[in-house]
Amino acid sequence: MEDLPLYALLLALAVLLILSAFFSISETSMMAINRYRLRHLAKTGHRGARLTSRLLQNTDRLLGVILLGNNLLNAAAATLVAVIVSSLFGHNDLALFIGTVGVTFAILVFSEITPKVIAAAYPEPIALASSYVLTPLLKIFYPVVWFVNLFVQALLTILRLKPGENSAAQTVSLEELKTLVLEAGHFIRKKHQGMLLNLFDLETVSVDDVMVPRGQIEAVDLDAGDDVLHNQLLTCHHTRLPVYRGTLDNLVGVIHVRKVLHQMRHGAITGAILEKTMRDPYFVPSGTALFSQLQSFQENRERVGFIVDEYGEWIGLVALEDIVEEIIGEFTTHAPTQAGMAIKQEEDGSVIVEGSSLLRDLNRKLGLRLPLGGPKTLNGLILEYFEDIPEAGTGLKIADYPMEIIQTQDRVVKVVRIFPSLAPVTESPEAEERIAGR
Q: For residue 265, what is the DSSP state?
C-alpha cells in the first residue's frame, strides 16, 4: 500500500470518511424517523417506507450492520492515516500522534457529528433513501451480524433485559396524544384541534358536568288543567319535555312536542292523551363518563336521559345535544329560563355572571381556572367556600380570582362579579394546555 501514490491514499481516505458518514447518517435517521408517518407511507405503497419498516422490525440486526460497517471503515481510515504518515515521515512518533489526532478530528466532524445533525433534521428522506442500500447490505453481512448478535443477546440475557418486549409494549398515552394535537398547529386547524381535545376529554368529563339541574328544567304536569297544558305546549322552548304527576319527584315519562302538536289539530290535548303518547323515562347513573353515555344513547336510541344520584333521586337532565356541544361547541339556542353566562362586561375588566353558570363553561369561555373537582356551578363553589349563605356585597377570592356577591335570593347566589384581570398570570405549561383544550 505504501507504493501507491499519495493522492490515491488521500482519495481512499476521503472515500472511507464518506462511507462512514453514510452509516452514521443512516443510523440517526432510522432512529429519529416518525414511526406513525412511516406506517402511513408504507400503507400507501411507498417502497422505501416498506423497506425501512422491515429494517426497524429487527433493530438489533439493523444496528449490527450499521455499526459493523461504521467501525470497519473508521478502523480502515485510521490504518490508512498511519500508512500515509509512515510514507511521509517514516516511523516518527510525533507525526504518528498528530496523524491520529487529525484522523480522529476528521471522523468526528465529517463522519459522525455533521451527518448525524443533518439526519436529525431530515430523518424521513434520508432513512427512506438509505433503506435501499442497507437492505442488501444486511443480506450480504447477515452471517456476521448474526454471529455478533449472539454475544449481544447473551449479554442482554445476563442483564435480564428484553428490549424487544419493551419496544412492542410502548403506547401513546392520552396526555401524549393531546400534546401531539397541540403541537400540530401547522397541520390541524385551531377549530379542529379544539374538537379533538374535547373528544379526548369525554372520558374524564361526567354527565354531572353538563347536565341541566332539575330546578331549571321545563316539565309538564299531567295533573294540570287542559288549558294550562295547551298553553305550555304552545310556548315551550324544547322538542322533548319531561312529564311528571303532582311533583317533579314523580317523573313518569317524556313527550315529543312535535307529535303532540300534530294531535292538537284533531282536538284539545288532555293529560290522558299525553300519557298515551309519552315514552318511559331513561335514567342515567350520576358520574357516568360522557363517552360511555354517548355510546348508551346510540345503543338505546335515546336522546334524553335523567341523571339519578346514589339515593335514586333524579337530579338533572342530560341530552344528546349537550354531549355533541362538548365536542364541537355550542350550536343551539338556549331557552330564556336556562342558566346564562356573561351578563355584562364591565370597563374595569370584571365580568358579571349568573351564579348558576357551570364552572366548565366559565373556564372555557372566560379563560379561567376555577376548580372542577367539587361543585359544578359557581353558586355551589361559593357556598362550599363559605359553608353558609353569603350576603350581597360580600367579597371573596377563589383560585386567585377576586369575586363579589351582587345578589342572593332563595338561599342561592344569583349574580356574581368576577375580576379575572386581577388574578396572577400562571406560566405553567399544564395550565396553558388545559385552557387551550377547553
A: G
SS3 417: strand
Alpha helices by DSSP H, 109-162: 114-121, 123-140, 142-158
Closest CA to 421 of 366, 359, 342, 364: 366
The answer to whether the CB of 355 falls within 8 A of the CB of 415 is yes
Backbone φ and ψ for 358, nearest 5 degrees, come out as -70, 140
What type of residue is 100?
T
Q: What is d(CA 252, CA 222) in angstroms, rounded to the nearest whole number?
A: 9
pLDDT of residue 186: 67
Q: For residue 314, give the nearest of 265, 372, 252 by alpha carbon.
A: 252
**C-alpha to C-alpha distances, 344 to 347, 348, 365, nearest whole angstrom:** 10, 11, 14
Handedness of CA 342, 345, 346, 349 (dihedral sign): positive
Note the pLDDT of residue 1: 55
Q: Identify the pLDDT of residue 282.
A: 93
Task: Report mean pLDDT in 10-residue bins for the chain, 438 residues.
Answer: 74 92 93 88 90 89 90 91 84 85 91 92 92 92 88 86 58 73 72 79 83 86 85 84 89 88 73 85 92 91 92 90 82 52 69 86 84 86 90 90 90 89 55 39
Output the pLDDT for position 134: 92
Give the separation between CA 413 and CA 174, rounded to whole angstroms: 37
DSSP 8-state assignment for residue 346:
-
Closest CA to 398 of 359, 427, 349: 359
Tell me the DSSP string of 175-237. Answer: HHHHHHHHH-TTTS-HHHHHHHHHHHGGGT-BGGGTPEEGGG---EETTS-HHHHHHHHHH-S
* Amino acid identity at 282: Y
- pLDDT at position 236 is 84
Angle at 119 between CA 117 and CA 121, to 5 degrees: 70
pTM for the full predicted model: 0.59
Q: Where are the beta strands (DSSP E) in 277-400?
A: 283-285, 304-308, 314-319, 342-345, 351-354, 395-398
Distance CA 232, CA 11 (A): 95
- Cα–Cα dist 402/423, whole Å: 7
Phi-psi region of 240 (alpha: psi -120 to 50; beta: other; left: phi over 0): beta
